[in-house]
Each structure stands twice: as structure tokens, then as C-alpha cells.
Amino acid sequence: MDSDDYLTQSPYTAPGPRLDSLLGATPLPRDPAALGALVRGVVLHREEGDRFGYAVPEERMNEDAESRYAADLLRILAERGTTPLTEPREPAARFVGTCRDFALLLCSLLRATGTPARLRCGYGTYFQPGFHDNHWVTEFWTAGRGWVVADAQLLVEVTLGSGLYDISFDPMDVPRDQFVVAGTAWRACREGRADPDTFGVSTVPEIRGLALVRADVVADLAALGGTEPLPWDGWGVMEKENEEVTDAELALLDEVAAVTEAAGRAPDARRPDGVRRLLADPRLAVPAEVVSHTTYCGVRTVSLSGAARG
Questions:
Q1: Which end of the chain is less congested by CB atoms within 10 angstroms, N or C?
Q2: Could you read off the pLDDT of 282-300 as tens digits, one per residue?
């Protein structure tokens, strides 16, 4: 890839053939905030149906969120109704996913309209006071600002008339201390500046601690490298128990954390050389098969094509 790495679609973010038919005669807006509002109007978080007065069908709780690719997300939207992509949909006609799906679709549409963008894995501090909730967001490049964090999931006031989240910031410009990238979380936990048990999944209380942060550091590296995994995917050092991780692997993870944390301060929109170098390490590289710890279907092995692994 050339200097506009994050303007190039990955196999995961490529919108596929349904985008044009979903748009009809209305072009995609180029403004990031307008694209964020568009995403919030067509995606529903699977844990938030009751907030919209909608009972999410059981089969959609898993089937939609297991879609790895933006092209499949758009295909499902096309199957759910004929409302143009640029118009908010009723909950029953939306894609039912997770935070990663909001981030993935926004990244796809930003790239499609000429704005470099990428997914980031980390923790939102704005869901529960005192807790760092496992979360995915989008970063997009703005001249004069650099990388800006956007959380399309928070843009509920666009479609509901009032916000569901107690936030005091612009969801399309999330402060770095409100969304903590996984590398920052890892370094804080390793250096004793943060309690690992305050990092986890609020809807699944048993998923928390340093093992989760370790997995998220590797997932964030993969996303920066062009493989945007599902939140429950695992491979290599991600799959080890804490006591099984060697000193050499801890040192490697410290390096990953430093590189991925610094990526948000990069002076340009190119993929950092450190990301390329680290993903060439067999201990971190995304393999042909990953372990998927699905929420509703148990643990299974999923094969990825070479193209999908980037």
C-alpha cells in the first residue's frame, strides 16, 4: 500500500456491491459528522433494543453481529427494507450489532468518501462511572488536527431527539481520556497506575482484567494493520492464561502498546512502520484460523482467507 494506507479499503471495510443500490439517487455525504449520523440511523446495538422500545429477535442477537464484513452488513440492510441508507430506519429494519459494527461501517463510508479512517480497540469511560468498558471506535484523519476519535454509537440524539448517554463531549470528537486505546490501558495496568479489574465488559461481569487488556492490545494492532477482527476473536498470545505469558511476550506486548498508543499522535495518515514490523512477528500475526469466543454460540474456530488477513 502507498502513503494513503488508511484511505484504502480493507477486505473487512470494503462496502461491496449493495452500497449504490442502498443509496439510490442520493449521494453519500462527505462530512464525517453526517456520516456518523447516517450510521447511527441504520445500526442498532444488540443490547439497546429496549431503549428504542424494540425487542430484538433472538436470532438477530447473534447472526448480525457475527458478520465480519461491511459488505455483509450492507447486504443485511438491503434485505431488511428499501429505506435509503441516508434516512434513519425503524429499529426492526436496522442491522443489529455491537460497537464494532458502528465503527466498521463508519470507517467504510469515510474511506469511500475520501477521508482516511481506521478502527481502534480500547475502553470507553462514559458508560459506567469508574469503569473502562471494552469498546470499538473509529479514528479519522483531519488536516490540522490529525487523528480524531469518533463514536457513532453515541449519536442517538440524531434519531431519538434526546441522548441516551450522559456525555459532555462531541461524539465525533471524543477526548483521548474518555476513550482509552488498549495500548494506553496496558501500559497503565503494567505500571500500576490503573487497576486491571476496572477494565472489562459491563454486560458480562466475569470478562475483565489483564487478560482482556492483553487481548485488546493485539486486536488493536491487527486493526491498525488492516485486519479488523470481531471483538471476541483470539489467536496466539491473546489465548494464553496470564501465568502462561512469558517475560519475552510481556516485553513484546509492552512494545506493541507503545507503538499503538503513539499511532494516535502520528504526524500523517500513513500506517506506522512499527505496526508493519510487529505484525510480521509470528507471535502477533493474524493466522489463517482464529478462535471465536462468540457470545451466543460458544467457542469455535473460524477460518480466514489470506485476503481477509491483510
A1: N
A2: 999 999 899 999 887 789 8
